[in-house]
Amino acid sequence: MMPNLRVLKLKVVFLLLLTGSCLTGLVYLGFSLGWIKADVQADLTSWLAPIVWEGTFDPKLIDSIYKQQNITVATTVFALGKYTVFLQDFLESAEQNFFVGFRVHYYVFSDHPEQVPDVKLGGERKLTVMTVNSSSRWQEMSLGRMKRLEMLIESGLVNDADYLFSLDVDTKFYGRWGAETLGDLIGVIHAWYYNSPCVLFPYERRPESQAFIPYSEGDYYYGGAVLGGSVKCVYQLAKTCREQLDIDAAKSIEAAWQEESHLNKYFLYNKPSKLLSPEYSWDDQKMKPQEIKIIRFSQVLKNYAEVRPNI
Description:
- The protein has helices at 5-19, 25-28, 33-39, 59-67, 87-97, 138-143, 145-160, 231-250, 258-269, 304-307, and strands at residues 51-52, 72-79, 103-110, 125-131, 163-167, 171-173, 185-189, 222-230, 274-276, 282-283, 297-299.
- By secondary structure, the protein is α/β, with parallel strands linked by helices.
- The strands form two sheets. An eight-stranded mixed sheet has the order 1-9-7-8-5-2-3-4. Strands 6-11-10 form a three-stranded mixed sheet.
- The protein is globular, with a radius of gyration of 19 Å.
- This is Globoside alpha-1,3-N-acetylgalactosaminyltransferase 1 isoform X1.
């Protein structure tokens, strides 16, 4: 009798996890990453880090555990140029869904501080506006994030918060985002590549860049819209990426996807302790497939020509 196909697939994936093999190994076995996700929807990486999907955690239990620790969650968002238009929806939806019942401190970086909306915040939640210089290129807005994160942490955040998330502003919360996302080093699986094989990931492929990843390597493609973890771990990430960005800049090299490319290089050799599924970084222009049970946080629809200065 032929073995049950689903059981066979599960055994193959479990064997790879036990042996610590990269998920690219499935590509060489003739399988695609999409084949795994659609049928198995793995909740562990090959290095045994949890992947957070709907149904993999008890929200009340995990929130209660972290609330006993009296933690503070710092959250940075960069609203430069015309991107301030997204702040209202971002902040209002965050107040309804993001670490509700926890102490949260938003840090809004903007070159137009007067355009930061006055959003009513819940108890033990506050917002600080950080004024920065304007830029004529949207790429520079992205490239400067790591440096600003590094400087913010060095200015004393390491003593004021336990965890730090950096989130894109052109987004909106649609569902719960709580303590299930906490850990030492957090990455989010990109919504457009979660079911693609590694060879199709848009990594930086030029060897002369510090963000270079060869076609023979890779685990996941991580979205730059979300990064987080303990303040100390995020500091090391930001510092390392900023240093790599500076080396590239000195050689007039700009990675394919700016700081997102360097983020992926960092995560390749410094594995995240926890991964967030695409539920935590979707895209409003992408239809929700059956395996995605809930969309919690998503890029909103926009006309890039209207909000980016050099398009």
